[in-house]
Amino acid sequence: MSILAYILLSVIIVSAVSLVGVLTLVVRPRLLERILFMLVSFAAGAMLAAAFLDLLPAAMEQAPDGVFGAVLAGMVVFFFVETFLYWYHCHSGKCERHTHVVGEKPHKHIKMPFTYLNLIGDGVHNFLDGVIIATSYLVSVPLGIITSLAVIFHEIPQEIGDFGILVYGGFSKYEALVYNFLSALTAIAGALLAYFFASSIENLTHWLVPFAAGGFIYIASVDLLPELHQTQNLKKASIQMFFFLLGIGAIWALTQVLEH
Prior knowledge:
Largest sheet: 2 strands, antiparallel
Strand content: under 5%
Helix content: over 70%
């Protein structure tokens, strides 16, 4: 299978993850909360492991000069994306932060402005995911597979949260699924752009791989781990730690299998 085929298959699967919001229609809210609780822990470990065990070593092998600057650039860009497009909405002079709002009572008959801002931000975020996936495959197929899985692990809880935000903001559940999926399709555009431009711009992947690592580190440390710190129950904290380490272990094991 060609590199382009791997890239397209991966980003199509990542885009399809946006339909996971359908779980809110068939899973009880309390059970869904437990699932999210474990997925966020697992995703945090998987993304950190992918960054430090796969992306950064690959970047250092390609071109050690400038790697850490590119990592910093990745963290800064993801910070800007989330600050100005994704996580916050302001209306009536008040700003609120939304994470997982599944199960909250939706507004009726009117779509709140922040829902469109959320869709735009999600589209930009997914576009960057597509760039990251394509860039990783251009380095090697194993790196592309590991990166794609790390993105998927992160996207599952995020997309459930996005679905909840849209429903809360006035979308019907059907509309929320459709619009969330359309927003996710920008990953395909990002992947194709990275694939064709990386082929024509020399050494582009040397910068984009550590840039992707910076993005993963930012998401894991800023978005995911702080949510885990909110747990005060020792039993829940122990479960979180288990799934966090399981995420790291899964990526490490996958690295060993794919590279040998």
